Every structure is written in structure tokens, then in C-alpha cells.
Amino acid sequence: MATLGHVTPSSKFFDTPLPLRSGAQLRDYTLVYETYGELAADKRNAVLVCHALNASHHVAGTYEGQPKSEGWWDNLVGPGKPLDTDRFFVIGVNNPGSCFGSTGPTHVNPATGKPYGADFPVVTVEDWVQAQARLLDALGIEQLAAVLGGSLGGMQALSWTLQFPDRLRHCVAIATAPNLSAQNIAFNEVARRAIVTDPDFHGGHYAAHGVLPKRGLRVARMIGHITYLSDDVMEQKFGRELRAAELGYSTQEIEFQIESYLRYQGDKFSEYFDANTYLLITRALDYFDPAREHGGDLARALARATAKFLVVSFTTDWRFSPARSREIVKALLDNRRDVSYAEIEAPHGHDAFLLDDPRYHGVLRAYFDRIAKEVGR
């Protein structure tokens, strides 16, 4: 398969305030995005890709002069790939509150002339979808062939079907859930506590002190990474393998290879991710619950959706288990919606949605082939 090659991000400034679910607003903001492929003359072949917690607009391709800069879903999006950019016009958008270019806590607050820091307003999945819709307006795209997302991105795809049911024909929701379980909220809270109790956090205004709460971010990433992997994968990769030949009998030094791996992941994450962004995005995960406004009845919540659906889960994903995807499927079937469901037997845990799996990619390829035929591509 061919590759997209080098890609270049674009940005769009919006001077119209964005009202937020919290009652606050973003007075003005910039969205960073990338596009791949060509928009058809009738503009019916556009696919929006929504990113998860620590991803961005950089879905596919590479950046010139930056080795190992492949987009986070480069194995899925590109010429001849399951989401084929020879047939579709693919859009990746960085959400407000992020630290990858779109307006977020590291940017200057126009009201104070200083970085937002902890003053950046709380954002929700619904707010992100509203911002994405404004970008599509600016691009002249009235209706999407599909909205695609995994994990938190899948929640955004679901939200699209409820907020703008007439603006998409297909929803592809992968490794996601209709809301977070209490256990998932608990994991997020422990990660947030690790950040806010870091002495360098300074109430979220660490930039004014010239420091970064890297210790807290490292622990937060380690906690998160544990939940993204299955027990089988951890056992296969690391087991009880020691880092050295013998036990060191230390309570503080690294003894096991799994400890070394987690510390490496934490260290790497703390070098590029913003702590306030982590707090915002995990809170957006916690808040997503479309059934809440319908007495907890998911079928009633999804009654508004008119799109066709593909829902995909993975057997060893214990953070967003197949049972949660089946909740979505049942609610859609209760509304007599057109829904396809694939439960992929994969050993990788939640991270499976990012990895190469021939059965998983085969399902997506077949589904997007179906969409391509609908739009004459």
C-alpha cells in the first residue's frame, strides 16, 4: 500500500464565541486540522476522524524532517488502506483544550494576556462536536459520509449522531462506551490526583512559576497505560522478568521489566503533554453520558440518531469492554436503526483499536467499501 507521505497541518481562527455546556464560553479560538485525499465535487465523500485522549489532528502521514512522525492512525488511513484516501476526503481535527495546536490551557487568555492555565474552561464531548461542526461549515461541508472514532473519539462519533443527526450518514464507533463505568472514573480521578498533588502543579498555573508537574504526569500516564493493555499482553511481553540478573532488594529502584516499561512511558509522556489538558480531557470522558438527560434510558437517548452504525469492540478490552458496545447496539436495535457489530478476538486490550489486526481492518475496509459505493467512489 502507498503512503500519504508528508502532510501539513492547517489552522482556522474563529472569532465567534463558542458556548460551552458549563455555561462558560471561548471568546475566540483556533482549531488545527489536517486533511487527506480530495473532496469530491458533490462533497459527499468527507469522513471526520475524532481523536482520543492523547492524540491529535495528526491522523496519518508524516511531517517533513521529523523521523518517526507517523500519524496515530496511519495504519488505517491512507491510499489503499481501510479508510482509503484515494476514495475519501479525511479530516482530522484537534479539539479545544488540547495541547497540540488548537486553543488550550497553554495559549494566551485574551481576557488576561496570560496563559489560560487552570482558567481554561471545562469542555465536554458535546462542546468538541460543536467546534468540529463549525470547522466543517468553514470547509463548506454540509454532510459527512461518516464520522469515525475510537475510545473517546467513539464517544464524539456517537455525539455527532445526536447533535447533528442530519449531518452524517454513517457512524463508526470503535472500542467505546455510552458512558464511563465507576471503575473508569476512579482511574481518571487517581490520575488527576497524581497531577494536582505534584508540588510543581501550583494550582494549574505552573507556567507562571517556570516549572512543569512532570512527576504527576508520569504517574498519570503509568496508571492510564496499565488500563490500555490486557493482562495477557503484559504477561507475554514482560511476565516477571527482572531488569537485572538478580533481585536488588530495593523498595525504590526498578526491579522488574514491567516497571521499567511503565516508567519509560511516563517519562516520554511528561515531555510532550500538558497537565491541564490531561485534567480537562479525562473530565470530558467522565461527563459523557447521553442517557443522563433521558432518565438513564440509552434507547431514548439514541432515538434521535438517524445514521447507519458500525460498532466494533475487542474481547480483551476491559476498560471499554464488549458489553459496553453491546449496550449501544441494543439501544440502536430498540430504535430499529441500521447497525452492524463486530467483536474482534484480539489479545491487545484497549490499545487494539490502534494496532494492525487483519480481522479488525478487514471489517473496516468492508464497511468503508460500502460507504464508497454509496457516494460513487
TrEMBL record:
Keywords associated with the record: Acyltransferase, Amino-acid biosynthesis, Cytoplasm, Methionine biosynthesis, Transferase
Localization (cell): Cytoplasm
Record's GO cellular component terms: cytoplasm
Stretches assigned to coiled coil: none
Binding site for substrate: 221, 351
Main location as per UniProt: cytoplasm
Pathway annotation: Amino-acid biosynthesis; L-methionine biosynthesis via de novo pathway; O-succinyl-L-homoserine from L-homoserine: step 1/1
Gene Ontology MF terms: homoserine O-acetyltransferase activity; homoserine O-succinyltransferase activity
Residues of the site described as Important for acyl-CoA specificity: 319
Keyword ATP-binding: no
Domain AB hydrolase-1: 45-355
E.C. numbers: 2.3.1.46
One GO term of the biological process aspect: methionine biosynthetic process
Family per similarity comment: Belongs to the AB hydrolase superfamily. MetX family.
PANTHER family attached to this UniProt entry: HOMOSERINE O-ACETYLTRANSFERASE
Role: Transfers a succinyl group from succinyl-CoA to L-homoserine, forming succinyl-L-homoserine.
Protein's UniProt name: Homoserine O-succinyltransferase
Species annotation: Caldimonas brevitalea
Gene label: metX
